[in-house]
Amino acid sequence: MNKKLWSPIILGISVMVGIYLGRLSVPVSNADGYDGVQVMQMPSVTNKLQQILDAIDLYYVDNISTDSIIEKVIPRVLEDLDPHTTYIPAEMLNDVNIELKANFGGVGVQFSIIQDTVNIVSVVNGGPSSHLGVLPGDKIIKVNGLDFVGPKISNQMVMDSLRGDIGTKVNLTVTRNNTNIDFNIVRGLIPQYSVNASYLIEDSIGYISIDRFAENTYEEMLQGIAKLKTQGCSKLIVDLRSNQGGLLDVVIRMCNEFLHAGDLIVYTEGAHQLRQEARADGKGVCQDMEVVTLIDEFSASASEIFAGAMQDNDRGLVIGRRSFGKGLVQTQLQLPDLSAIRLTISRYHTPSGRCIQRSYSDGREDYYQEMGRRFANELFNVDSTKVDLSQKFTTKKGRTVFGGGGIIPDIFIPHDTTKASPFLYNLRAKTILYTYSMEYANKHREEYKGMDSKSLIAKLEKTNLWPEIIKYAANKGIKSPSSISSLEKGIIEQDVRAYIARDLVGNDAFYAILNRTDPTIIKTLESIRRK
């Protein structure tokens, strides 16, 4: 079962946009640049394009801003390069960079816009909102005294309103149980977490889900593994499904924890970049831990480096579906107006020599349309997985692996189609299950207070939520069909329990519930047990 409960098409669009921005970056220490992204000097030359712009500025019949022309020309110039070289306008640059930073200034809440209202989904522990008593389930109705509800409210508007410089103030009015409450919040440093969950999925088998490779991901992973080891974990499932990538030095440090001294992790090279290798130093804390890596069609760039390093060094199985196939490394070039371009400077190769960047010779549009073609066939049939038989490579122990685009898993898991009924689709499309779960959690928060994940999950499983769910859906205009299969009913109840558990105790419980019926997790556990 898809762990994030999103439809493949929506998730596909999301990941394509993320990858299009060229997220795999070369990190260096640079006091004048953005943390974690290399910033170089732009070359200063006069060329034909500049001469044309100067002529327009000097002689054109009307007064016109050449800056507006340049904004349109730059993307067109880059369009003929690879799909991951891109232009970032100045007004977008901070938002693009912030997702790879460990911290930013804000109020410390996660939100979701439901029925034109901003609902607080979770409150960051230790953040400004948590200190003042803001709770999950609160609905923001005013910001700085101005109404903040209605169809014009967007995710960007919310982020622009809540984020800001550390030390600045914002007033939020929320409604809770039909009562309005004002909070005067001083924006503070908000940690960005990239490890979604880490828990013991079975005796001695740990599970860790990693959302992206950001500045703090390495430390988060170590903390999660340390927690698991205290619980007796000796085998680890690293879930990189839908992980779109991130910082190169971070994934190298993470791979180092699992590999032995001298093992090659990755190497990069380009026409103007000499070959650079990264090798394990033999000091990793997980060298003796059995590891299995999970990937899917949305695992890209740094995720593929990790999976490729584990596979080529024969450190553990890779399970799932062929990864995205993004093997290009970008550097960020700063422009004088604080805009930037992310320019591809090299290709990365797995230890066996595979460059897993898939072809983009037919242009950008075709490149991104490939994901739709995968959904038409490959994701459901192992025999259709793209394998270029001419690109054979050998792992450390002599196994044959193939290049030609993405990491091909050792064990293929077809895409799950059990969630395709119209009734379930409507429940999700109209956020019925999600809103019901939030309301249930708010009503029963005191009842579940103090419970750990295991106890809460056990209690939820004994609670018959089905009649309430069906009644709630009907009140929202979605009537249940005359006949519902036990499979579909189980999926709906499981989704609701997972949302409730996440609201009340956090992500570990959320994933613990969903993973019980996840085909990839089930197959992974079977593979581990057989050893």
Residue share in helix: 25-40%
User: What is the number of helices?
Assistant: 18
Radius of gyration: 25 Å
Distance between the termini: 25 Å
Proportion of residues in extended strands: 15-25%
- Main sheet overview: 6 strands, mixed
How would you characterize the overall build of this protein?
The chain is an alpha+beta fold. It is built from 18 helices and 22 strands. Strands 1, 2, 14, 15, 18 and 19 form a six-stranded mixed β-sheet that branches. Strand 11 (195-202) and strand 12 form a beta hairpin. The radius of gyration is 25 Å and the shape is globular. It starts with 7 loop residues before the first helix and ends with a helix. The relative contact order is 0.12.
Summary keywords:
531 residues, alpha+beta, six-stranded mixed sheet, six-stranded antiparallel sheet, 18 helices, 22 strands, 22% strand, disordered N terminus
Provide a quick synopsis of the model.
This protein is an alpha+beta fold. The chain has helices at 8-20, 48-59, 66-79, 90-98, 128-132, 155-162, 217-230, 248-256, 302-312, 364-376, 422-429, 432-443, 445-448, 453-462, 466-475, 486-505, 507-514, 519-530, and strands spanning 39-40, 86-88, 103-106, 109-114, 117-123, 139-143, 146-147, 169-176, 179-186, 188-191, 195-202, 205-210, 235-239, 264-270, 273-279, 290-295, 318-320, 328-334, 340-349, 392-394, 400-402, 411-412. Helix 8 (248-256) runs parallel beside helix 9, helix 12 crosses helix 16 and helix 16 (486-505) runs antiparallel to helix 17 (507-514).
